Amino acid sequence: xxxxxxxxxxxxxxxxxxxxxxxxxxxxxxxxxxxxxxxxxxxxxxxxxxxxxxxxxxxxxxxxxxxxxxxxxxxxxxxxxxxxxxxxxxxxxxxxxxxxxxxxxxxxxxxxxxxxxxxxxxxxxxxxxxxxxxxxxxxxxxxxxxxxxxxxxxxxxxxxxxxxxxxxxxxxxxxxxxxxxxxxxxxxxxxxxxxxxxx
Length: 199
Fold this sequence. Notes:
Oligomer: single chain
Order of helices and strands: HHHEHEEEEEEEHEEEE
Strand content: 15-25%
Number of helices: 5
Shape: globular
Largest sheet: 7 strands, mixed
Number of strands: 12
Distance between the termini: 26 Å
Radius of gyration: 16 Å
């Protein structure tokens, strides 16, 4: 199957009108969030790069709030150019007083343009990355824009630990993969934590 075929499978499940499935997702999202916040990969990170979740994604707001409360540096992405213009994004540090605006896809983004120089980061960074489909080797299919794959080419591998949060219905045994796709180090679902050696 092609990437588009896997996307269709997950989107069909995500867009279900079954109220029982919807309630199960809410319950599992809480399980996933709680499990993630107990992991060493979160606890030991000084800096958290996270994303503002869209509707039907596992919500990230509790993680953002907890990380700020825990005294970690927290950063959110901001789209610089659209897909046709190169799909560039960058990250901005935020705090409880940060101002936001609605950006591409209606996602909240920081108003600030004080972008982070990732090559100047000396602390360990935990990055949460969105995705539609994942497999047990850490391969990921996103929404097709390529924003994160491009951004990760700038990030020092020895400083960045990449984690994806996913429902089990987003998991597959194997996904199509090419040299531009960047795998994740860890996947957290409602049932398990899958650690992947991507060296």
